[in-house]
Amino acid sequence: IIPEKASLNYYMRAPTREELDVLKEKVIACFHAAAQATGCSVDIKNVGKIYENVICNPTLGRLYESNFSSLGITDYQYEGDLTSSTDFGNASQIIPAIHPRYRVGNGVATHSPPFAAIANTPEAHAKTLLVGKALCFTCIDVLTGGDTLMKELKRISILRQANYN
What we know:
Helix content is 54%, strand content 0%. It is mainly α. It is flat, with a radius of gyration of 21 Å.
């Protein structure tokens, strides 16, 4: 039985904007095919913002990694861009940015009940404070890094801006 009217709210995510555009075309094609197969019509409205993938600046990433290891932490390695989409991702498309990752538990997935339990421990809090210190040291590096560092950050930022839609 097909109701007279139905509605669907959906959200799509993909590792990059290009992949999101491809996914969006496929999903919309599926909606239209389902409507045609059932003798219905479909009306698609974009609501809200598109959240871009996070692009990490490699220069900032290396500075952060150096600062993190100088604090005695050895379980971090700069791994480049993230495949997550957030409002921060939008900012990272046009300005130099990093999104540090660090471990507070052994292989426990974030945003899960086991992670919540591990994250609420003195060890996890101490690690988080070290991350904050490493970020502060990275800011100091940027502010005192001189013209060469600023030119490198700007160069990468300009390249990113040129590719931003």
